[in-house]
Amino acid sequence: MKPLNAHHDGSHVSDPRRRILLVEDDLEMANEIRGDLTDQGYEVRHAATGQEGAAEALDGSLDLVIVDRMLPGLDGLSIIEQLRDAKRQTPVLVLSALGEVSERVRGLKAGGDDYLTKPFALTELAARVEALLRRPNDSRVTVLHVGSLSLDLIERTAMRNGRQIELLGKEFKLLEYFMRRPGQLVTRTMLLEHIWRCHFTPQSNPIDVHIGKMRRKIDASGEPTLILSVRGQGFIFSPDA
Amino acid sequence: MLSILRSSAFRRVAAVSAAFCLAAFLLFAFVYWQTAVLYTQRVNDMIENQAATIAKASPEQMLWTVDTGISNNLHRLTVAALFNPAGERIAGNLRQIPEGLPLDGRSHPVDAATLDVDGPKSQSLSLAGLRLPDGRTLVIGRNVDQLDELRVVVTRALALGMIPALLLALGFGILLGHRTNQRIRAAQIVLDRVRKGSLAERLPVRNSGNDFDQLAIGVNHMLGEVERLLGELQHVGNNIAHDLRTPLSRVRTMLERARRPDSTPEEMAFAIDRAVVGLDQASGIITALLRIAEIEHRQQGASMHPVDLASVAQEAVELYGPIAEAKQVGLGLDIAAAPAIHGDHDLLFEALANLLDNAIKFTPEDGRVELSVMDTPSGPVVEVADTGPGIPPDRRSQVFARFNRLDKSRNVPGAGLGLSLVLAIARMHGFSIAVGDREGAGCVVRLMCFEANAALAAMPV
Questions:
Q1: Which residues constitute the domain of residue B29?
Q2: pLDDT of residue A237
Q3: Same domain, B330 and B412
Q4: Is the pLDDT of residue A8 over 50?
Q5: Is residue B44 located within the same domain as residue B157?
Q6: B73-127, pLDDT tens digit by residue?
Q7: What is the domain-level CATH number for residue B233?
Q8: pLDDT computed for residue B413 by the predictor
Q9: Is domain A19-133 annotated with CATH 3.30.565.10?
Q10: Could you give the number of structural domains in chain B?
């Protein structure tokens, strides 16, 4: 069994510079997004129309495409369909002002890999981009090892420093999600969507409480905490060893 | 006048009258026909009997009978004649043997002239001719003009009966048509006023229980609902504007203050962070409203699948367990039955999550929230009971209205849209919701997962 890379550097930048195509007709919005992603170390190209975007997307050498759902000329979903028809597996993130669940489903069915509803936080976008660029670690392994923590996917148990940790159903899924994305920013919405299949934002904030509970289980006294909070953004699973 | 003739009442009366006339006509025709047949039969029988009887008499008797029988109208014979073998008249009131009359002793209808005082004129006769053994020919018969008279009588009776009946029906139809038109015109005037905006107008109802009244009652119900919905819409519109303006004006003030020349970078960062929170709040309200609208307009059935209610309840309790724990509120799950229903899993989950969210939010420390799934005779029911302050009975129907928070302060988190969302989800499924008192203290919200009378939706327990 191949141990996972436990020594992830956790930075957002990877070499060579990742290339992102942003297809967005709202120029002010596009500038902000481009500025933010450039700050994160990505190389961002911008297309303002559907036709332009489709041409660029098919050009290849891209690591990620971000398309707005509604564009003048050619609609965002058509771009994805053209891309998929051309057998390009480039991950696509759909941005949309249409928040309806049915729209999300359409976006994902058309071949999009993730869907983000406007307005969104730039950090949410950055987290989604990072998640798409770093596909989760090898899913064939049966035991995940990150730092001092190991998670047995078959026995559904966790161990840290020789200590067995009891996990309930959702806690197990939560921990697995984090351990497959060490060093990555994970937002609350991502957790709600992936762990609870919850496509709405509950009024109270159940995620933070769940994380708090999880920390109490996996961090014994004296051990550094594995799930770090990033204020106003989300959480990062940070390996301790 | 033309509009009366076109009115449905008049047309109905006209149709009924026409049917009545046709029936009466058929009846009279039948009576006439039957009478004529019977009469002819009797006359023919009589003539044939007489012919046979006379033929058996002696020649003198026969002559006497032919001569006197007619003048005495004996046996109601009007025609009697005796002819010699050469066909010449011996006695009686026929000049000659009518052409084409078979001499077989049977009655036949014949048109012929008789030798009467007032000159020869052709008549409808029923005659029987008989050749006697001595070569003479006997013809007797009878005038059947009475059949024509019968026809005249029947026709006259028909006309005398029918024409007044028809006129009566016509008049009645016009009257009814006029009354219908009046009611319709009154209704049109009212509906016109409604169309121009006075929604409080209602159609007149006479409490006679007729179809018109029922229609009017139905329309009035609809108008009531339209008025209520429009009122709610206006109310919601005002509330949206207010609820959006509150965070936006806060954001504006924060940002304005942050750009004072002497602000420190820390102060600015803090103000910006708070401004972002305010904007998130505003867009959260918009998102919630759009979501309610989406659910309300979603076609039922598109996303409906068999759903295990118990497992949805379990997931909701799992999501909210830690929150309740952190607030020191007990959260219990009681699954008395595991009913499968047809619904949208994600929306039902959202509904239960909202109910739990609300219950936990309003339950004080050391209180308890209980989510129960049960099967009742009418169908599956999910109940969320809490030990919070409860909802006064007179406010219960309001809690589901958009932006209705019992405390009017805008400082409690939440936009007051949670329960509207739950109601929208319930309605989309055809389910209903009731709010009641928990035994002891607190509140029970009951989601009845079965098609009930739509009017019961959002009714207090």
A1: 1-198
A2: 93
A3: yes
A4: no
A5: yes
A6: 655 677 888 888 888 888 888 888 888 888 888 888 888 777 765 556 677 788 8
A7: 1.10.287
A8: 45
A9: no
A10: 3
CATH number for B107: 3.30.450
φ, ψ of residue B289 in degrees (nearest 5): -65, -45
Instruction: Give me the residue from A200, A206, A210 closest to B291, CB to CB.
Output: A200
Report phi then psi at B61, rounded to 5. -55, -40
The CA angle B336-B341-B342, to the nearest 5 degrees, is 165
pLDDT in tens, B191-250: 999 888 888 888 888 887 788 888 888 899 898 888 888 887 787 777 778 878 888 998
Query: Could you tell me where in chain A the CATH 1.10.10.10 domains are found?
Result: 143-237
| Residue B357 to residue A204, Cβ atoms within 8 A | yes
Are residues B115 and B180 both part of a single domain? yes
CA dist., res. A25 & res. A23, Å (int): 7
B231-241: per-residue pLDDT in tens?
A: 877 877 777 78
Position B277 scores a pLDDT of 87
Compare CB distances from A206 to B322, B346, B361 and report the shortest one's residue.
B322
Tens of pLDDT, residues B121-178: 677 788 888 888 888 888 888 888 777 788 888 888 888 888 888 888 888 888 888 8
| Domain-embedded: residue B205 | no
The answer to whether B320 contacts A168, with C-beta atoms less than 8 Å apart, is: no
| CATH 2.40.160.20 applies to domain A143-237 | no
Interaxial angle between packed helices B265-297 and B418-429, expressed in degrees from 0 to 180 and rounded to the nearest 10: 20
A206 contacts in B (CB within 8 Å)?
319-320, 322-323
Whether the pLDDT of residue B288 is over 90: the answer is no
Q: Let me know whether B137 and B74 are in one domain.
A: yes
Give a yes or no: residue B204 inside a domain: no
DSSP state at residue B75: G
- Burial readout B136-145 (b: 16 or more C-beta within 10 A, e: otherwise): bbbbbbbbbe
What number of C-beta contacts closer than 8 Å exist between A and B?
A: 69
Q: Percent of chain B having pLDDT more than 70? A: 89
Single residue among B271, B293, B315 that ends a domain in this structure: B293
- Taking the Cβ of residue B356 and every Cβ of chain A, the question of whether any pair is shorter than 8 Å is answered with no
One domain, residues B339 and B320: yes
CA distances from A182 to A14, A95, A179, B448 (A): 15, 25, 5, 44
| Cβ within 8 Å, pair B353-A213 | no
Choose, out of B319, B369, B419, the residue to mutate when testing the contact with A (most A CBs < 10 Å): B319
Per-residue pLDDT at B118: 58
Nearest one of B41, B29, B167, B50 to B109, comparing CA atoms: B41
Query: Is B326 in Cβ contact with A202 (below 8 Å)?
Result: no
Whether residues B62 and B164 share a domain: the answer is yes
Residue B81 DSSP code: E
- Compare CB distances from B287 to A99, A168, A205 and report the shortest one's residue: A99
